[in-house]
Model the fold of this input.
Amino acid sequence: KNLPDKVHTASLQIADFYKKRFPAQDSEILTQFGKLAVANGVTIDEAKYKAEEVELGRLQPVEVEANLTGTYVSLARFINALERDDMLFVINNITLAGEQKGPIKLQMKVETYLKAGSSS
Done:
């Protein structure tokens, strides 16, 4: 019942999902990553990304590797913010290190996706 309307609604929802979750430019990824770090009191010591080549019209995987510094609480909030952000971030690996006194260091690998053929 009402299949054409449901298909139209689903198409709009899919387009909205892609628009919100997958950036068109790779610079948007690091910008959003940086905003979340600052908002949660985390310092980015180093960050780099690597985008894989894919066919036009497909999602392009992008791996972000970052070294971060902060308190346990600020790092936990940052991780939570990444997981809840509109842009899709998939946390693949986390390694914690720190001294008994001083900030905690965190190394992480995060995967996200670009709309293929639109990076700059």
